[in-house]
Write a structure and sequence with these properties.
It is a single chain. With about 140 residues, the chain is an alpha+beta fold. The chain has one domain: Gcn5-related N-acetyltransferase (GNAT) (Aminopeptidase, 3-Layer(aba) Sandwich). Helices cover about 25% and strands about 30% of the residues. The chain contains 5 helices and 6 strands; from the N terminus they run αααβββαβαββ. A hairpin with a 2-residue loop joins strand 1 and strand 2. The mean pLDDT is about 85.
Length: about 140
């Protein structure tokens, strides 16, 4: 999953080798959504300590896009991070239209805090938890 978006023109074998040797991918924890043994969606969770996490590498099989399945995976991941891991802040860098993530409670950081021209940094905060965006120790793209 993700080859069509992230391969940068590489052939499949090279793309998979980059994925297999990625430090970023090994440092995170993968969650997958499958149905009847078929992989549908996946994402990677990174822990930054101090009740902060990041969700990245969200991908869906091309045949399953626009099916609602990624939304199920994202929603259940947010719920798990808050209820089981006591997450207060959950970061995400959006490589797609950020509006998609607004429905899950993510907010875009102000333009002056954005670090990358093609990815929008967003944050999801646990209800009742407030933070001054200017005081955030923003993680690099993960």
């Amino acid at each position: 999953m993700g080859f069509d978006v992230w391969s940068d023109g590489d052939i499949l074998e090279k793309y998979l080798e980059v994925c297999r040797t990625s430090v970023k991918y090994r440092q995170g924890r993968w969650l997958v959504l499958e149905q009847n043994g078929v992989l549908i969606s996946s994402l990677l969770i990174h822990s930054f300590g101090n009740d902060a996490f990041g969700i990245g590498s969200i991908a869906t099989a091309t045949t399953q896009r626009k099916s609602g399945h990624p939304s199920v995976l994202i929603s259940s991941t947010l719920r798990d991070l808050q209820e089981q891991q006591n997450a207060k802040l959950i970061y995400l860098y959006s490589d797609i239209n950020p509006d998609f993530y607004l429905r899950f409670g993510f907010v875009q950081l102000p333009k002056e805090l954005q670090k990358y021209p093609t990815s929008t940094c967003m944050v999801h905060m646990t209800k009742g938890f407030e933070v001054d965006f200017g005081q955030l120790n923003l993680p690099k793209y993960f």
